[in-house]
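@channel sequence for tomorrow's demo:
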Amino acid sequence: MGKKLSKQERLDLHQKSYEMRTNILKMMRYGEGHIGGAFSSLDIITVLYNKILSHDPKKPKWEDRDRFILSAGHKCLALYVTLADQGYFDTEVLWTYNTLNTRVPMHPDEKVLPGVEFPTGSLGHGLPVAGGMALAAKLDKRGHHIFVLLGDGECAEGSVWEAVMAASHHKLDNVTAIVDRNGLQVNGRTAEIMDTSPFEEKFASFGWEVETIDGHDFDSIYHALSRVPFSEKKPSVIIADTVKCKGLDFAEGQFEFHHWHCEPKNIGKAISSVEEKKKEEGARIG
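structure tokens (generated this afternoon):
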């Protein structure tokens, strides 16, 4: 059985996730960013880095660390603020986003930023790489775990399903995929652009253990992640139902905010909206 979070732990995670949403908005003072998926996946990433991953910001290449790959690399705003919060680099680096020679570009680059495991951006590459890492860990008899976050729109890529098949074939129970199922992509509803349903059944048919959760409920996220692998010799997948641009009232559930060019004068309004949502949801947890 997975462990349970205390009330204080839930409050701390909630506060941290909303502080990082505010930091994402501050980063966007210089222009555009893929805010929709960053906000929808941020609660999951917050639990991962604060409660699940074995990692050391002072030793980013520690051999026995757990690995996290953000396959949908355009959601990197969420990864950047998390890595800064964890101490991988100084927070001041965030404010260089969208500037010349920045270390936090619109897609992550492991050559310039500690904590990034693989340069993602071209969709469909994260799970194949995670599978390779997991197989190498098995061959080397190492105990670390590999987590990879996918987008539901990304799962239209054929390379994802090749990797799903390979992970099952090689019995990679040291790899866990998390699908940020917010139902929207850059130009509309995922179900209308490329319907992946029945999603859970497809993963199960390839030999994966599947669990579906509320991707904004910290208890559900933690309960699932703390129990992987769900079965010995089988890879695990967590389908997380989320809301595009969660936490920003006027943008929630709208595909137009998959990628947003925000005028600097509107940043203050967006930050105020996020702060109000933080108070409202925090009161319910409290």
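heads up for whoever presents: The chain has nine helices and nine strands.
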